[in-house]
Amino acid sequence: MRGILTGRVIAFDEARGLGEVEADDGRRFPFHCTRIADGSRRIEAGTPVCFCVRAGLPGRWEADRLVPRA
Asked: Taking the complete model, does pTM exceed 0.85, yes or no?
């Protein structure tokens, strides 16, 4: 998968550092807090974002380089 997608964070568990983002086309991708581009390691559910997708665990794609957008 290539390119930059846009979407919205639909869930983020700060204690575990795990979240999920939904692309504008409806696909959902999990992410870890270390994948937030600004290094903050936290992001609020509902935040609109731009992101890339990368191969993660076998058989699954993950969101990478999440950047909050205005």
From this structure: yes
Residue 49 token pair = 């974002």
Looking at the DSSP assignment, which residues form a beta bridge with residue 64?
52
How far is residue 19's CA from residue 61's CA, in Å, rounded to a whole number? Answer: 13
CATH architecture of 5-68: Beta Barrel (2.40)
- Residue 34 phi/psi, 5° resolution? -70, -10
Beta strand 61-68 with 48-55 is antiparallel
pLDDT tens, 24-64? 999 999 999 999 999 999 999 999 999 999 998 888 999 99
Domain boundaries, the chain: 5-68
